[in-house]
Amino acid sequence: MITMEHVCKSYRVAKRNAGMREACKALFRRETEVIQALSDVSFTIQDGEMVGYIGPNGAGKSSTIKILSGILTPESGSCLVDGRIPWKNRTEHVRQIGVVFGQRSQLWWDVPVIDSFELLKDIYAIPSYEYQNNMEELTELLHLQELLKMPTRQLSLGQRMRCEIAASLLHSPKILFLDEPTIGLDAVSKLAVREFVMRLNQEHKTTVILTTHDMQDIEALTKRIILIGRGRVLMDGTLEDMRRLAAEHGQAAEASDQNGESLERIVAGLYQKLDIL
Fold first, then answer.
1. Does residue 250 register a pLDDT over 70?
2. What class, spelled out in words, does domain 47-96+173-274 have in CATH?
């Protein structure tokens, strides 16, 4: 079970105008601004649940995932993941979670993918029989047979993302955090990733938290949606709840919103009405 209660997190960022004169001034007097990434965020996710965590850029999605994975420490509030405080029990915690950041890689760039997998086996101290079983299953389900001997830098984006997902699951985590896992992928690769994540959740009861801007991913994979904006949870419910919220704020929910484009229009309109862009 995942529980966040009244979690707050802010960042202090430096600001200055363009030009050499402003750069020199900043050497002696730096102007900063406090950005509130998360403000009183609370939710609970049950074991085996698959949840879509959505919001515009800068809403606080990645900050939430980093806190849940133990990368960041919140300023206030509490967070428990399967009974652990992520940033205090990091060694034990990372053995039970898998994380995929769509714009960052955990694979070594210049070596074959299989070498990265072998190194991850040693890092996580995965028993040989478990590693072999997981490798066989992941290789078959994600169609990695022709990719394992190739250096990561020679893979297409879709091929690399399939390898990234496999790398995050080698140690059989109970919880999987997916941050933009289908960003930049073609239609075939997206379908392959969606089908795999669905099967993983159904067969292994893996808890999945999906953050994405692709509403087709959300519609295909999740029944529950948490909408965050300006660091606050604005809605926690189903797709129908989101459509009703959009309608309440004056955004028409078309009868034909079974297609991804219509749902994306509803979400974009909702972001504007709630002033969270």
1. no
2. alpha beta
What's the pTM? 0.86
Spatial neighbors of 167 by CB under 8 A, at least 6 apart, are 106, 107, 116, 117, 120
The residue-averaged pLDDT of 243-261 equals: 60
Q: Tokens 């020199």 map to which residue?
A: 24
The structural domains of the chain, with segments of one domain joined by +, span: 47-96+173-274
User: Which pLDDT score, from 0 to 100, does residue 3 have?
Assistant: 95
50, 208 Cβ separation under 8 angstroms:
yes
| The pLDDT of residue 9 | 95
Sequential DSSP letters for the chain: -EEEEEEEEEEEEEE--SSHHHHHHHHHS-EEEEEEEEEEEEEEE-TT-EEEEE-STTSSHHHHHHHHTTSS--SEEEEEETTB-TTTSHHHHHTSEEEEETTS--S-TTSBHHHHHHHHHHHTT--HHHHHHHHHHHHHHTT-TTTTTSBGGGS-HHHHHHHHHHHHHTT--SEEEEESTTTT--HHHHHHHHHHHHHHHHHH--EEEEE-S-HHHHHHH-SEEEEEETTEEEEEE-HHHHHHHHHHTT----TTTTSHHHHHHHHHHHHHHHT--
Measured in degrees and rounded to the nearest 5, phi and psi for residue 202 equal -75, -40
How far does CA 190 lie from the centroid of its chain? 15
User: What tens digit of pLDDT does each residue of 29-82 get?
Assistant: 888 888 899 999 999 999 999 999 999 988 999 899 999 999 999 999 999 999
